[in-house]
Structures are given as C-alpha cells and as structure tokens.
Specification:
478 residues; alpha/beta; five-stranded parallel β-sheet
C-alpha cells in the first residue's frame, strides 16, 4: 500500500501524543495538528492518506474541515473522533462524507481495526483503478486488421477524421464490427491524442444514473451523492467522449447532449454553474437512426448534429478476404495473452471460417479462435472445436473440390504447412506485408501498426524477403 501517513487533528495533547505513539509503533507515519488552521497547513505539506479528526477544536468545528477535505481531496479518508454521547455529530459527519467514526474513550483494538479497514478500502480502490488502466491499455493495443477494399476505404476515413478536428463523428455498423476501435484510432491519431479518451455505453447505464455519468454531480445532488463527482464530459476535457450505442439513449438525455454540442457547456447535476466543454464527441450505434427519427424515437436535430462526419463500418461477411489475416492476428495476440504456442490453422478450418457469414462480425471470429485455442491440444487449429453453427453452415454448402475430390483451398491463399495447415509463419509474413502496405512503406509507422519494435520489423522483413514498398491505393495506417 506504500507509505501509510496519518494526520491526527486533536487539541488535547495527551490524546494526540498517545495516539501518535501507538500508531508509530505499528509502522504508520504520523503527524499532528491542534487546530483547523494548523491542520490546513499540514494537509498541504504532510499529504496524509487518513485524517483522524476531532469535531471540537479551539478555532471551529471539525465538520467545517471535513467538508473542505471531502470537496478538495478525494484521496484522503476521514475518520471522526467523537464522544460516545455525541451521536448526532457522528451522523452529520458520515453524511458529509466521513469514512467512519470512533467513540471516545477509545478501545485501541477497535481503533486499529477501523484504521486498517479504511486503508484496505483505499488499497482496493487503487488496485481497481490500476487494473482498469491496464485493461484500457490492452484494449488500446487492439488494431484494425485488413487489406480489403472496404478496409482501405475505412482507413482513409479514419485519416481524414483524425486530421480534421470535426467536433462530432457518427460511427454506424453492426455489433462487433469494431466501432470502439475506430473511435480510439481517430482519437489517438488526432491532435487530441494527449488528452483523455472517455467512453460510456448508453445502453448499459440506467436512465436515472446516465445524467450523473455524463455530466457529474455535486455532493448532495441526490440521496446517495456523498461526494462531488466529475462526469465523462468533464474528465475528457480537451479530448474525446465516445458515446457507444447512442441509439439507446433516452430522449430526455438526447436533448441535454444536443445542448452540449450547441453551446459547448454543461452543468453538473445539482449545480448552477456552467462548465466549458472542449471535447470531440464520437457517437456509435448499430441501429438505423434515420428510421428512429421517422418513428420519433430519436431526435432529428441531434441526428443531424452528429451526422456531420459519418463512417459506416463494413460487416465481416463483406470482406471475407481479411479473415485469414484476422485469424493470424488473433492467434498471435492470444498466444501472448494465454502463453499458448499455437502455430497456425488448418486449411480445412480456415475454409469453415471463410464459408460462414459471421453475424457477430470480428468479435464473433475472435471468440471462435479463442475457444478453439483454449480447447485445442495440437499446434494447429482444426475444425474440431469450432462452434456448431460454423460447422453446420459449412456442411450445408457445396464446397469446391480438388482433382482428388477433397475440399479445396477456398481462400485462394498458399502457404500450406506439411500437416495441411496454414502456418503461423505464413500468417505472420502476411501481417508484416500488410503493415508495410498500409503504412506506405514507412517502417516506423508499420512497426507501430503491428505493435512491434522497429528492429523486430526489420528482422522479420529480412527473414521474409520483404521490402517497404509504397501501397498503390495510398491507404492510411490506423
């Protein structure tokens, strides 16, 4: 948990000294203040993680200091010390945001238990934040993969949107096509890349909580609002707000988002002060917003505001030539994630995947590869552990045959291994070639696109006999 710093705010010297002595013996770093004025100075220089606060101080009420700490220092937990007879003050302190209270005279065992429990809560919160950030980094490492004409057009649109600071962008496409990846690509390749990227799934938040999630709230704005909280519009200042599944946003909230777009201002719930909103809004939906406008389930004025720049993401069934590249990419990523050593996919399994129409799009393909890799004991993915829907679909369709009457290579690709599979080496070669093509031969950009170092890229270019040639279509990297 790092350094455990505790500030004791208590004017009775004997109590302050005994508490300091006890806490020091147990490894805490302790400082003390005998008044509100002294405590304010200590808060600046000592920077505690816990404040033990007496409510009766010579220069005022400890409740006033508690209010200030709760409004200005979210990283500090306050434990109130009060006489057992003063239950009303303890209740007021808890309502103002105190983490807990301890009655005087002290039971030292209970006292230490309350402090340790408070520190443990802080630690769990910090741990949750850490893993959230790690998960976000992992998500940001995902890439849009493909060399089909549809994907080249998509890369070009991403480049245009990244280079122009359009304040609203609308992403349209079926679930699983990668709308979040496109939103992130636009943000991280734009002038706003150093500012935050915040996101919210409008379909996943209950209507009564959505306004607080978007715009934040003041302490006391509603029953459970114990602290001031910033919403994603405020947290994204200078950056990008991604509103996923905006088609599911209630009409009442649509009006408030429209006002933010038009005025570039918003208010926290329970506040009367306007806050400036310098953000880009990227909205996404799998629904037909034009049809929703006609049926009055989506505001027409918001739709036209969002639809200044729109990108329609292609479904996987319309770019099946990208499936082999996606499979190679997912094998590489999942090998790293799970410590597996899968070397490739059999031609038969790849034929199954290519014949399927993928209603869940790229997300469904990734899940299928992940499932197969978890269950497969061999070094090559076979059809054995593919989903039953994929197998049934393949068996219902007539398949091309070779001269020997066996299923042919329906993908039209070479690179078959000795066991009849498409090797990870061949998939890797294609990935390197694709990265160089999309980056226009620029090795630095290609290495960034492929999530590898430039030295690794050069080694593999030499290994596969590849050169950084200019891509004829002029596609932009994402």
């Amino acid at each position: 948990m790092g350094e455990k710093r505790i500030l004791i705010v208590e004017d009775e010297k004997l109590i302050s000294l005994s508490l300091s002595f006890m806490l020091n013996r147990r490894g805490f770093i302790v400082d003390a203040a005998a008044s509100i004025a002294e405590a304010k100075e200590k808060l600046k220089s000592f920077r505690p993680c816990v404040v033990l606060l007496d409510l009766w101080l010579p220069d005022g009420s400890g409740l006033d200091l508690l209010s200030r700490i709760e409004s200005e220092r979210e990283d500090i937990s306050v434990i109130v010390m009060t006489a057992n007879a003063d239950a009303d003050s303890a209740v007021k302190a808890l309502k103002l945001g105190a983490e807990d209270f301890i009655g005087k005279p002290f039971n030292m065992e209970v006292f230490l238990h309350v402090i340790n429990r408070t520190l443990e809560k802080q630690h769990l919160g910090e741990t949750a934040d850490f893993f959230h950030q790690e998960l976000r980094k992992k998500t940001e490492d995902d890439k849009l993969v493909g060399t089909s004409e549809a994907m080249v057009d998509l890369f070009k649109m991403i480049k245009v949107c990244s280079e122009t600071d359009a304040k609203t962008i609308l992403l349209l496409g079926e679930s699983g096509t990668g709308k979040e990846l496109v939103a992130r690509a636009i943000h991280y390749h734009s002038a706003r890349a150093d500012a935050p990227f915040t996101e919210i799934n409008c379909a996943a938040i209950p209507e009564n909580l959505l306004e607080s999630e978007l715009f934040g709230h003041e302490k006391g704005a509603y029953t459970d609002a114990g602290k001031r909280r910033k919403g994603i519009f405020e947290l994204a200042e200078g950056g990008t707000v991604f509103l996923d599944e905006i088609g599911d946003m209630p009409l009442s909230m649509q009006a408030k988002v429209l006002k933010v777009i038009e005025t570039k201002r918003f208010r926290r719930l329970g506040s009367e002060e306007d806050i400036q909103a310098d953000v880009r809004i990227i909205a996404a939906t799998h629904q037909n917003l034009q049809a929703m406008v006609k049926s009055s389930t989506f505001r027409g004025d918001l739709f036209y505001r969002l639809n200044v720049m729109s990108i329609c993401l292609p479904p996987l069934r319309d770019r099946k030539e990208d499936i082999s590249l996606l499979v190679g990419y997912f094998i590489r990523r999942l090998n790293e994630e799970y410590g597996k050593k899968v070397e490739g996919i059999s031609e038969e399994a790849l034929a199954y995947l290519t014949a399927y129409d993928w209603p869940g799009n790229v997300r469904e393909l990734r899940n299928s590869i992940e499932r197969s890799m978890m269950l497969e004991q061999e070094k090559t993915i076979s059809p054995r552990f593919l989903n039953i829907e994929i197998k049934h679909n393949f068996e219902q369709k007539p398949q091309p045959t070779t001269n020997h009457g066996q299923p042919g290579n329906s993908t039209g690709f070479g690179g078959v291994s000795e066991t009849g599979g498409l090797s990870i080496v061949e998939l890797e070669r294609r990935m390197i070639r694709q990265g160089l093509e999309i980056a226009g031969g620029n090795q630095t950009k290609a290495a960034k696109y492929l999530c590898i170092s430039r030295d690794t890229l050069r080694y593999r270019m030499k290994k596969f006999g590849l050169r950084g040639e200019r891509k004829r279509t002029g596609a932009a990297a994402t």
